[in-house]
Amino acid sequence: MDKTDLPPVGPDDLPLSLLEMGCSGRFELITHPLPKNKPLPPHSTLPHGLPPTCLDLKTEVEKRFLRDPAWLPVHDVDDAFHKFLKISKRQKEVDSLLHCSLSPLHSGLSVVRDPTTGMLLDFTEVLLEDTALSAKNSLSLQRQPGPPSESLRGSNTNYPFLPGGMEELTLEQIKKKSELEEDIDFEKDLLTVPPGLKAGMDFSDKEARTMKSEVNLLSLLSTFDDVLDALPEEKEGVSQKEETVKLPRTNSLEDLGIKDSGNSPSQPPANTVSLTEQKKKPQEEDKGDNKKWAVPVDITSPCEDFYKRIPDPAFKYPFELDVFQKQAILRLEAHDSVFVAAHTSAGKTVVAEYAIALSQKHMTRTIYTSPIKALSNQKFRDFKNTFGDVGLLTGDVQLNPEASCLIMTTEILRSMLYNGSEVIRDLEWVIFDEVHYINDAERGVVWEEVLIMLPEHVSIILLSATVPNAVEFSEWIGRIKKRHIYVISTVKRPVPLEHHLYTGNSTKTQKELFLLLDSIGNFLTKGYYAAVEAKKERTSKHAQSFGAKNVSQHNTTASQDRSVWQTLLNYLSQRQQTPVVAFTFSRTRCDENARSLTSLDLTSSIEKSEIHSFLQKSLTRLRGADRQLPQILLMRDLLKRGIGVHHSGILPILKEVIEMLFSKGLVKVLFATETFAMGVNMPARTVVFDSIRKHDGTGFRNLLPGEYIQMAGRAGRRGLDATGTVIILCKAGVHDMGDLHAMMLGKPTVLQSQFRLTYTMILNLLRVEALRVTDMMRRSFSENHRDTQTHEKRITELRNMLSSLPPLDTEGQLSDLLSYYHTITELRITTETLQQAVLESVNGLKALSVGRVVIVNNSQHHNALGVILQVSNDAVNRTFTALIICEKGNEEGAGDNQSNKVSLHIYNTALFIPEGPCSHTVQKLKLQDISALTTKTLKVIPERIIDNYNKRQQPRFRLDPPGQAISTATQELLRLAEANPRGITTLDPVNDLHLKGVDVVEGVMRQRVLQDCLKDFHCIHSPTFTEQFARVQERMSVQEELDKLLFLVSDQSLTLLPEYHQRIKVLEALQYVDSTGAVQLKGRVACQISSHELLLTELLFENTLSPLAPEESAALLSCLVFTQNTQIDPHITNTLQEGINQVLCVAQRIGELQRDCGIAQTAEDFVAQFKFGLTEVVYCWARGMPFAEIAELTDVQEGTIVRCIQRLDEVLKEVRQAARIVGDSVLGSKMERASLAIRRDIVFTASLYTH
């Protein structure tokens, strides 16, 4: 069939065409307008011609990368732009510049209804507040939520929510200018060149000026005057406004409110005033009650009406609650914050559970934080069984993050708070478990940061072991959060403890167990001496007769140890005292003790099969090779016999198996280190201490009472045992009784602040203008002694006093009165410090011997001569007995000494000469009463003088004439005074007493200069001088106290302020912040990183990681998480060695910079904290070597290796985030690959608790 050529479609033709449907011969009519001058498509639903090919890659790339303006580079614009234009000939679309995102609506419509019928009457426009608030510019909870992807962890560009207790700024503070602010004249001072550009706009007046149009707003309004007259109410409103405008600026909005109501005619004033008064009343009450933020709750009397007050509890317990638990629950129902300090196993978890149940009832959320990851995992399992809706967030695991109860480590909560996570909005409770961990030097600061950063609407529950200063600590939290904290502490343990000494070491002596401290807390010395006797009997006859030869107190051989343990454990299992926790303060000791007990078997055959099946089931999640690790095989053998080992060197999965078996009662003896006592809730019947000395990183010391109580507290299971048994082994000899007593009955460690500044904290707070680092420092527990409220009260009092004092007369002769006062004060202080230096020196004390004539100044005597009769022996408060001349009648200091006091401050060397007959007194003087040592000495007979004086103090001999010795001495002193009325020569500290200290020499010179100055003052000659000087003195003493208080309230008095400035210097030098304190790109990156932020950021920006392969970069970064010393040198590749050298070089540079900026840490110390012992291990692991082979490369224990690799994974995640901020996608993907390479096998086996 020939192809018919149709004429092209004309404008009047209908746009019709036929479409052939498949092969059936059906046609359909299509009425689409056809595309202009394009050939008709083949009208059929069947495919025609060749099958379609994939798109041309070239055009795709061109379209995606070259023509899309979003892909043009941001930096080197000019060059790239021309290159692109050449290639792409992109059409310019000027219109696209006109499109911008809409600004938020600033108003909405609200409906006006008839109040009775509900009919719609009208719509009114309502202005919306807070419309432009977002997570990037506001701390308010009113801001709009961020994107869902950031809702959990927040983002490091978000602002945090406003921390509770941080006040909004007052008017005064807003008006006060900071140093950086300056007054700007909006006519002349404006800048015309934008930052970053070379030239700017020219705003100078041009010649051609348009005529000013004479229309102004008032002239327009005047035409509406008649309209305004028709609306009288509005007019009244206007007049009222005018009146309020004239109000003076005041310091507080309340004053303004009162004045406003007074001035405005339209409002009844009484009403408003009463409102503001009401507002003021609670404030005044608060001020009066300013110390009582912590409220101790009485738990001695039973809580009778508990079920009446809470008829429908959020959580019902199968047992009757203790009083302390009921009190805590009552407080939770009232939405108050509580601090529960209770003994181990008293049941603190009840409080946490109730809070979780309450928040589920209220449909809010709870965060439960714990110091240790293992504890988080355990709590997750417990709470999951109880509540179901529970999530877990630790560094490497994220389960069910949208749950209503989230369990996490404190570090994660801190980063959520800094990054403004949306979870915080719905948060009702934060539960801090094991709060006594705030004493931890390394991580304690995190608790403080979190407590300070929590917003106002979140209530706090603190759970802790018993601490002596719970009230003080709660007082601090209450003060920074401005809310009451109820302190609930238990009086005694639910299961009392008995403490014993054990001296047995063989079957013969296995019953040698001596009670030392009974269950009611009596220390029995009888038991102690019995233990000493028992031990003595077994020392060899030789040692008894000749004294023990260097028997070391602390060391015993392994075989001795073994026999002690063997004997003790046999004895305990016979008496059914298992399960036993044996605390040993070294990991190797734990392993050795467990291994040495080869013949001990404590389990029955049924228990053995149970242990076997549990082990098999738990280890199924390991790969075949990993199940054969030496540690697992060894543990399997020990566990079947009922022996377990628990310390940081054990593989995490094994640790969990052991914990679970122990809680089921299948592990009878557990050799554990101190970490086992930290929160892991696994009580036993008996606790044994291998030793009472431990190494705390610096040296060996005895256990502190707090540590001992924490560990001993594991003994005694509630509901199972009547008492818990604690046994202290005496292996080499019996411990010193004093040490034992201090350890068992001493006060547990007080909660102390470990607050310190970290770069991450500083950068996170600098990021947000509204939060200042000084605010954080002021609120830390270490600054708890600053009672700002009381200080501020006193400051206002002093200011009022100052304003009420009479004005000073500083005219004419008195013009130099103030400078005279300052000179005198300085001279007084200089003389006093010199005097102190003299009296504390050896030569000074030598000169202060019997017979030395001194000048005495105190409340009774002014420049009176005295002679020393006796010097006391004690070096601390040395006193001098001296004979002093005085007026008749002033022997007892009864004379009028008011005049003396004023003239004290008028510098006067003139000696005291009695006006009437000369009398005398014998007094004990303190060092500060002696104002100078003269060059003269007198021959005196001290005993006679003192005896005679004492005799004449008795009423019978009161009128006797003084004895010969006294009258001679008095006459001599009087003669000296009369001979030198203008002042007597004194011993010069430098020339006579040979004191060569710099400050002494400078002091003497300064003293001379000041003394010479005094001659030139005119004010002394004024008739009203004394009166005016007294006024100055009064005013100045108030002023000085005021200045001191103002200093204490100001930031300058913060202990950490100097260090803060030093750290800011470091950050400026490294360009993390600029000179105005704005955070730069490097600072933004450092915010992402939680530890060693400076080093990691520097390595990122110096591209140290770029040349390395993924496994090498992982190996290199292991130095940030590994903290132990190793004996074995790793074998590593050359590139890695170069990397290590670079890291050390950067660390050295940062260390030196820190030292130059004044930070105390030396560069060597800074570099030494990076340990490269695991580089080879991590490198091989990332390249896929099995774990068994890796463990042989190093002397580090398996558990430690696993923990390090897990933490390394967190570091890699942080570096990946940071690389993304910098825009280095290559490094980001390399970190991802490194992370994948190490996340395998036994290292990342999921916890048994979470699955």
From TrEMBL:
Main location: cytoplasm
Residue ranges, compositional bias (Polar residues): 261-276
BP term (GO), one: nuclear-transcribed mRNA catabolic process, 3'-5' exonucleolytic nonsense-mediated decay
Record domain Helicase ATP-binding: where: 329-485
Record's GO cellular component terms: Ski complex
Composition-biased stretches (Basic and acidic residues): 233-246, 277-292
Name this protein carries in UniProt: Helicase SKI2W
Originating species: Culter alburnus (Topmouth culter)
Lineage: Eukaryota, Metazoa, Chordata, Craniata, Vertebrata
